[in-house]
Design brief:
The protein has 100 residues and is α+β, with helices and mostly antiparallel strands. The chain has helices at residues 5-18, 58-71; strands at 23-29, 36-43, 47-52, 78-83, 87-88, 94-95. Mean pLDDT is 76; it is low at 87-100.
Amino acid sequence: MRLGWDEIRRRAKAFSEEWADAHYEKRVESLDANKRGFIDLLWPGVLIVEQKSAGRDLLAASAQASTYFDWLPPPPTLPVLRPFDCLAGALGRHCCVRNL
């Protein structure tokens, strides 16, 4: 079924409203303001994404994302580590993806 322009506009508006609080390259500071960092993608209370180049250490990226959890009120419920050639999500699920 093809979508009409009214439906496309309605869905685009709903999408933009749902993601209105999301931030890309969000600057964050530790609670004591001694450390700073940039979260690649943050949807407050919902999602945190750390992206790394292919072949980079995901354990270090996981530690970086975990550190940010402590700095965020409220902490996101879904952490995602995303190297550019593979996606690792919450609950230990792993799925490799390729750019088409």
